Amino acid sequence: MAGGFWRRRWGDRGVDEEVQGVRCYPSVSELPEAPDVVGIVVPYHAVLDTLKESHAKGAKSAIVISAGFAERGVDDRRELQVELGRFAQESGMRVSGPNCLGLANLKDDIWASAASRGATGLSGPIGLVCQSGASAFGPFLTRAVDEGIGFTYIVSTGNEADLDFCDFARYLIDDDDTRVIAGFIEGFKDGRKFVEVARLAAERGKPIVLIKIGRSELGSRAAGSHTAALTGADDRYDAVFAQYGVIRVQDYDDLLQVSNLLARCPRPPQRGVAVVSHSGGISSLTADMFGQAGLDLPPLSDRARDGINGILKGFGWAANPSDVTGYANSDDFPAIMSFMADDEGVGTLVVASAGADPQATQVIAQRDGSDKPVAFLWTGTRGAESGLPMLRREGIPVFYVPDKLAAGVRYLNDYHEWREERLRRGFASAGDLTGAQGDAANALGNGGALSEYESKGLIAAFGVPTTREELAGDAEGAVAAAERVGYPVAMKVDSADILHKTEAGAIRLGLDSADAVRAAFDEVTANARAYDASARIDGVVVQEMVSGGVETIVGVSYDAQLGPFLLFGTGGVMVEVYEDVALRLCPITRGDALEMIDEVKGARLLRGFRGAPAADVDALADTLVRVSEMAVQLEGLLGELDINPLMVLPQGRGVKAVDALALGAR
């Protein structure tokens, strides 16, 4: 279909028997055999009938190019799209689309697409899946053609009434010719399905590189209106991507160039980078970009420096980065590259130049003779007829600006290091509820808030240490509780209807005598009733005072698409001021917990800051793991959880939840 000119000659039966030399038929039903796949380009209201007719003929799959469904934003079109999906599920006929441009198998040069151009000879190691067909067969394809970046498949999924991004990505994981899965995503139809695909891709060592729309509120709105895809909270997706090794990039060029780098390069044996160029300015700027990307350019060894100086004979400089002047276009350049690439501490060689075919041949030979990645920063015109075409054709990853190259090499290192560590520690799983945990969870059954006392009872059942405390119904009971807990004590009104006790004036701290406890009981209960006369007050909690620790916050929330998330951050009100938090999808491993702790800037306080004792980070990590498992086990019962503050005590003394709030799922 692609790029053709359709001719119709009307005869006695309404349509001629041939189109562009190919036999044609008036309907699917009249085909002499069942087609492998049906491409449907008919008005939206005729799509479902055409699908049914195709299924009756024996077709197993269809690509619905036709638009006019959920992307229109009106109920009847959404419902029609739902009917397409329902038919696909009930019949077993798999459907791509609607509102897509089809797909292309570039390995076999098969174009089942309504795109206006093909690209014969563009086969390569990247599988591209886009919800937007115009992006897949527009900027991605044209840039790939220009840059010589090849694909195994190009797939546009459109509105995803049946098959979605995850289905095609799952296929590409099993495809031996696909080394990297690249995607352009507006929203995931099934976030948990994506997590499972990302997990399998990580285990198989197949990187996923994505553009995910929705970083800004404007982008999220645009995504919803374009393909009726739901865009989840962006920070949660970033957390999932980091947790499952998915690389998120910003634009078309990033997606293609980073995917190509990952597909073409082995794992760097070290993080160090060596940069060599014909220009001091180019090499210095490139080195600066690598430094900003968090990568190191280690100094050259005496052997490498002396060897290069012996070639340069007083010109340029032998360093890292190296300016080798005109020797970048000489017979001595292979020796220079070898000195730099073979140096201790160097894992990746970067050549920044714009030489002709002889230089390209030398760079290719360096790549072929080494186990270290080689990347090229092209500094000449992109229309060059010598040098650049050979680099592209032979699979040398080429970048055109230093910052994108530096980011790409950072992704290459980070991905392989992340995967090695992930394979070592595995992914987390949550066990089943114990009887005691199930009993504690029964309190969530009404879907409302639990009081602080009830909330702490819930988390204690899951192994979270809490303060010593007792619930008292009158002043004398509070005095007796204080004497058992031990002075000084804190007193808080216990009410599921008053979630913010400080605002209600319903909390007192540092009570050190019976008289102080009696007076505080009257004050906090009176203030609570004044704050909310209708609130149910269960009494007061008399609680031990906790000092000498670092305040942190631990929270659980649920995403409709992705499931339970764990939050960790600096505690108290400062978490709202600085938003100094880390997120992970639950459950997490202990390694994940330690990473979360390190991500938070306030974690410096936990390590011992300005003479303060180091906090019990091990106990904190264990607690984060327990809460993450609890979040999975209580899905459908628990709606939200805040432990704020969770006090992290000095090393060896553990943690204590000082306050907690649990909300039932609604």
Would you mind describing this structure in some detail?
By secondary structure, the protein is of the alpha/beta class. It has 3 domains: 18-262, Succinyl-CoA synthetase domains (Rossmann fold), CATH 3.40.50; 267-424, Succinyl-CoA synthetase domains (Rossmann fold); 550-664, D-amino Acid Aminotransferase, Chain A, domain 1 (2-Layer Sandwich). 38% of the residues lie in helices and 20% in strands. It is built from 21 helices and 27 strands. It has a 7-stranded mixed beta sheet, sandwiched between helices. 48% of the residues are buried.
Spell out the key features of this protein:
666 residues, Rossmann fold, seven-stranded mixed β-sheet, six-stranded antiparallel β-sheet, 21 helices, 38% helix
